[in-house]
């Protein structure tokens, strides 16, 4: 009897303890501390051709950091498909990494959650000051008028990649600088039996990046200056229609691309089936698919006038990765040191070379490595003709709603349905209605 | 209840050695009655922990305005009252309209999928009742779709449904010339049929398995007697097989219905985050309404509505089928 009672009491205590610990996991909203100064957890985004490659690139640098500071960094490379969900979960539970990479377009959305350490002038001073970074990259670190939620780490820009052999066969001497030229060149390319331009029609984010640039070229914005969605502006409608028309009317994007969402258009380009590709920092990716550097050229993305610049001559978004610190890290000092290390001139050169991206740090950009013909196209684009995606808290909803609308329009075009100003407007109107009321 | 059980147990207690009778009688009784509950307590608590608490939290979330601004500290999220529910069921507004559309799509999809799964599964099970060479092999083969990991199976279908290099278009267009041009299966209106195909392919082996097990319990004599009476194959199926499988079918259809209605993996792997309108199943729709747009309050409200709907359907189904059984038994 007594033994049974003891067992029962034990079981009850155990389950109570379990219950207590499980519930204790919730929102520990305490700020950060320096309780565990010897370790850091770092979530890196997947920048290389595979996660294994990323580990190979990053581990030696982390070892170097450990030698300098004695802080051991636990690395986890998170695939893009999981990264945002993982960050949201970490935010919700309050149990996340100390330092993490974020897509720079998420900066304002994540800033609104309040989970990331704001980079005020005091924090910036710890990593050498705000002036070390290129302006365009800083433009994509959070909402205007607020302290940035993250620090630029790698910068990328869209460029027009073209297959030199296909161009030569079709008798095209130089890459198109305007959309009209591109469409005209398309006819010559199609005559040679190749497809003209690739697109990821079912990839919501890719769609957003392109229609954003087209909107700029039409002198319009998806958000009004006070941050309200403005998707049905006639200029926005024209911009989206121009992009979808590349498939629907101009027939330079093959209809099959409407269902592409896993970078199949990059493969088509690498295999020599398709003459052109609009992509960000594709060099490493193309190489891993067996296309050598000498087979393709890189030119700025076409603009309506032929000369990229600011405003209506914008030809790329400011693409890139930011590095951020989780506010309730237990090693805030260490985390800041780590950000300083990752954004130091030397590390910037090493990492951006490995990932064929452009350093957002001015001093590192000077390096000869980033002045090659291909890199200078990207660098110039970033410096002169790239614009940051809207830095609004509802950016993530915007990507989903409008990206899906464009996906559906591509599906219509592929099925042979007419894409008209009205149908584009209706799709965008629906997208706008899905946006949060605030 | 306690008054009736206590006396019957009395002799047992009296038999325990060393028990002092009079003074400890009352506490002893409480303890005796309490012990089973005490022993149940851990299980109860764990049940609470793994089952009920998440559900309760989900319901609580549905009454909060849990957007990205509040997720790092839930307690600060303002109460939304029935705001999230109003938004979800306001069918004139875009959110409610989209939810209703998604609901209709899901109902149509579920009815078709469950119907086909059951039909194919039952037909296959009945054919497999005859003994013939290779029967075991075929039975095992039939179960493969059910045994495959969902992701591997569905991603294979994604490749087969591709527009340019997919097997489906190759067969339908290139070989059989059934269509004048290659069709899109993963975007546009055809995606409904693509989804249905994969769902049925994945679901019917389960129906097959369960019906096959049910068939083993039907006595052979019934068929022999029926055959003597001149009943043909179809008559036998209608008069013997189906009535005997009634109980099995009842559970099978309910389970298939719930699984199919709630299926998330198949549409998600097939179409990704943004499903085409014609195949916008409710589970992915809710995921999009909460995770992708960072509005967990609305997502929870939609989930609770879905839960209520499924509870009602299940309840009505159980009442109807059990009443049917009672009258047929009489």
TrEMBL record, chain A:
Q: Known InterPro entries for this protein?
A: Bact_solute-bd_prot1 (IPR050490), SBP (IPR006059)
> What is a single Pfam family found in this protein's UniProt entry?
SBP_bac_1
Q: Which UniProt keywords apply?
A: Signal
Q: Where does the signal peptide begin and end?
A: 1-22
Record carries keyword Signal: yes
Q: Which CDD domains match?
A: PBP2_TMBP_like
Query: Quick check: keyword Signal in the entry?
Result: yes
Protein name per the record:
Sugar ABC transporter substrate-binding protein
Q: State the taxonomy lineage.
A: Bacteria, Bacillati, Actinomycetota, Actinomycetes, Kitasatosporales
UniProtKB/TrEMBL annotation, chain B:
The record's region (Disordered) falls at: 1-25
Keywords for the protein's UniProt record, in alphabetical order: Cell membrane, Membrane, Transmembrane, Transmembrane helix, Transport
Output the InterPro entries linked to this UniProt entry. ABC_transporter_permease (IPR051393), MetI-like (IPR000515), MetI-like_sf (IPR035906)
For this UniProt entry, what's an example GO CC term? plasma membrane
Give all residue intervals belonging to the ABC transmembrane type-1 domain: 103-317
PROSITE patterns assigned: ABC_TM1 (PS50928)
List the CDD domains hit by this protein, alphabetically. Answer: TM_PBP2 (cd06261)
This chain's protein is named ABC transporter permease
């Amino acid at each position: 009897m007594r033994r049974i009672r003891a067992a029962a009491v034990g079981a009850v205590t155990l389950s109570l303890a379990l219950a207590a610990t499980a519930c204790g996991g919730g929102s520990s909203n305490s700020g950060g501390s320096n309780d565990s100064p010897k370790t850091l957890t770092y979530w890196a985004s997947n920048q290389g051709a595979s996660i294994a490659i990323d580990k190979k690139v990053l581990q030696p640098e982390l070892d170097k950091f450990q030698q300098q500071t004695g802080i051991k960094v636990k690395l986890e490379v998170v695939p893009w498909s999981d990264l945002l969900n993982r960050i949201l979960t970490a935010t919700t539970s309050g149990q996340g990494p100390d330092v993490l990479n974020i897509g720079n377009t998420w900066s304002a959305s994540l800033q609104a959650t309040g989970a990331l350490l704001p980079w005020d002038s005091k924090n910036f001073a710890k990593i050498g000051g705000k002036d070390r970074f290129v302006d365009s990259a800083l433009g994509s670190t959070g909402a205007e008028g607020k302290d940035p939620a993250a620090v630029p780490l790698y910068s990328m820009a869209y460029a027009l990649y073209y297959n030199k052999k296909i161009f030569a066969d079709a008798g095209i001497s130089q890459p198109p600088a305007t959309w009209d030229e591109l469409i005209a060149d398309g006819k010559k390319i199609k005559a040679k039996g190749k497809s003209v331009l690739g697109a990821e029609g079912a990839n919501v984010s890719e769609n957003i990046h392109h229609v954003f640039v087209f909107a700029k070229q039409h002198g319009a914005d998806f958000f009004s200056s006070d941050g309200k969605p403005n998707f049905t502006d006639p200029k926005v409608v024209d911009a989206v229609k121009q992009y979808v028309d590349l498939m629907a009317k101009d027939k330079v994007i093959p209809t099959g691309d409407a269902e592409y969402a896993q970078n199949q258009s990059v493969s088509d380009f690498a295999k020599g089936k398709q003459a052109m590709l609009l992509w960000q920092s594709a060099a490493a990716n193309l190489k891993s698919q067996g296309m050598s550097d000498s087979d393709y050229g890189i030119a700025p993305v076409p603009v309506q006038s032929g000369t990229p610049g600011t405003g209506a001559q914008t030809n790329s978004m400011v693409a890139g990765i930011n590095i951020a610190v989780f506010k309730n890290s237990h090693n805030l000092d260490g985390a800041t040191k780590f950000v300083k290390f990752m954004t130091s001139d030397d590390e910037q050169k090493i990492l951006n070379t490995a990932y064929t991206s452009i350093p957002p740090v001015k001093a590192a950009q000077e390096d000869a490595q980033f002045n090659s013909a291909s890199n200078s196209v990207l660098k110039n684009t970033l410096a002169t003709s790239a614009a940051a995606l809207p830095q609004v808290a509802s950016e993530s909803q915007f990507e989903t709603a409008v990206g899906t609308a464009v996906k559906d329009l591509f599906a219509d075009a592929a099925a042979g349905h007419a894409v008209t100003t009205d149908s584009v407007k209706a799709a965008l109107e629906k997208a706008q209605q899905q946006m949060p009321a605030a | 209840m306690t008054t009736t059980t206590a006396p019957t147990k009395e002799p047992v207690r009296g038999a325990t050695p060393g028990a002092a009778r009079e003074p400890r009688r009352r506490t002893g009784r409480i303890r005796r009655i309490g012990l089973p509950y005490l022993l149940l307590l851990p299980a109860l608590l764990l049940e609470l922990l793994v089952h009920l608490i998440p559900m309760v939290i989900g319901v609580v979330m549905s009454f909060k305005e849990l957007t990205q601004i509040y997720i790092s500290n839930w307690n600060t999220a303002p109460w939304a009252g029935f705001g999230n529910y109003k938004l979800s069921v306001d069918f004139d507004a875009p959110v409610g309209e989209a939810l209703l559309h998604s609901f209709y799509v899901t109902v149509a999809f579920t009815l078709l999928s469950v119907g086909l799964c059951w039909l194919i599964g039952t037909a296959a099970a009945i054919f497999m009742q005859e003994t013939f060479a290779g029967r075991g092999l075929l039975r095992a083969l039939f179960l493969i779709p059910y045994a495959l990991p969902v992701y591997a199976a569905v991603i294979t279908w994604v490749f087969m449904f591709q527009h340019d290099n997919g097997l489906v278009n190759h067969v339908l267009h290139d070989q059989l010339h059934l269509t004048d041009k290659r069709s899109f299966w993963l975007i546009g209106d055809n995606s409904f049929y693509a989804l249905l195909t994969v769902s049925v392919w994945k679901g019917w082996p389960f129906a097959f398995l369960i019906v096959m097990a049910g068939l083993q319990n039907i006595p052979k004599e019934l068929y022999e007697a029926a055959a003597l009476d001149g009943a043909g194959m179809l008559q036998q199926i209608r008069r013997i097989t189906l009535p005997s499988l009634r109980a099995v079918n009842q559970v099978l259809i309910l389970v298939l219905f719930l699984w199919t209605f709630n299926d998330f993996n198949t549409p998600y792997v097939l179409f990704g985050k943004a499903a085409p309108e014609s195949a916008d199943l409710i589970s992915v729709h809710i995921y999009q309404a909460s995770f992708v747009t960072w509005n967990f309050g609305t997502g929870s409200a939609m989930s609770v509505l879905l839960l209520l709907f499924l509870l009602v359907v299940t309840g009505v189904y159980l009442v109807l089928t059990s009443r049917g059984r009672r009258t047929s038994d009489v």
